[in-house]
Specification:
264 residues; rod-shaped; Dynactin protein
């Protein structure tokens, strides 16, 4: 009987040590689970905010894509206008060059006619001063030549005036085309800057959406983990409640009782 009690005492003391160790471990696990539960609850609580933010970003992304498409269409139109303006400017420059060449040729011809006219006027004056009967026919011929040269001179002057007017008009048109082209090119530069800014906004929105999707996935995982942790916490609580039924003080009192019996 005594040996049986001794054996029972040893077993009870061993169970007591195991139970105390398990109770300590379970208490630690419960504290860890409670911390994880609190974190998971916080994560799950922000899920609606994340979903709302994601929806807002997706709406903004759609708007940005529409703006990008509009800017691309406008840039394409401006590019076509720029090409057309460049071609027109090239034609204007060519017309100006031709007009300048014609004006230069007319001026040279006019100078040549002036020189011939001056020579013939000198010859005519010499014939008049000679006063011979033979020179009368020559003088008449020279006078006719002078009149023809004077008429030709007047026609050249009129042609030169017209050429200069055309050149001036061409130059004015050229300046207008250049100013218009510069405005269009300036508009293209501004549109290009806006286009690049929109591309940057698009890339930023894509990155934010991907980040929010990851956070939402984490929130869904946290929600699942919250359920699992809650179940596990309940299980550990039940285990601890069961362990409390075998209170170490109660076991210790049993051991003391066994010790008293053994002394008797």
């Amino acid at each position: 009987m005594f040996s049986f009690l001794v054996k029972e005492e040893v077993e009870l003391r061993a169970k007591l040590r195991v139970l105390e160790t398990k109770r300590t471990e379970d208490a630690r696990l419960i504290r860890e689970l409670e911390t994880k539960l609190a974190d998971a609850e916080v994560f799950v609580s922000i899920r609606p905010k994340l979903q709302a933010k994601l929806q807002a970003l997706q709406t903004e992304l759609s708007q940005t894509k529409r703006e990008l498409a509009d800017q691309q269409a406008e840039m394409s139109t401006l590019d076509e206008k720029g090409v057309e303006a460049s071609e027109q400017l090239e034609m204007v420059m060519l017309d100006k060059e031709v007009a300048e060449e014609r004006a230069e040729a007319a001026e040279l011809e006019l100078e040549s006619v002036k020189e011939k006219l001056a020579e013939m006027e000198i010859e005519l004056q010499a014939l008049k001063e000679g006063g011979t009967s033979e020179g009368g026919g020559v003088e008449a011929k020279k006078s006719l030549d002078v009149l023809q040269l004077e008429k030709h001179n007047e026609r050249l002057k009129e042609a030169l005036i017209k050429l200069r007017q055309i050149t001036q008009e061409t130059d004015t048109e050229q300046k207008r085309k250049i100013a218009e082209l510069e405005r269009e090119l300036s508009g293209i530069d501004e549109l290009q800057a806006g286009y690049e800014e929109t591309l940057s906004k698009l890339a930023n929105a894509d990155a934010q959406i991907e980040d929010l999707k990851i956070q939402l996935d984490d929130a869904l995982g946290a929600e699942d983990m919250l359920v699992q942790l809650t179940d596990r916490n309940l299980q550990l609580s039940e285990v601890c409640e069961g362990a409390l039924l075998l209170d170490p003080l109660f076991l210790l009192s049993l051991l003391c009782a066994y010790d008293t019996d053994s002394l008797r």
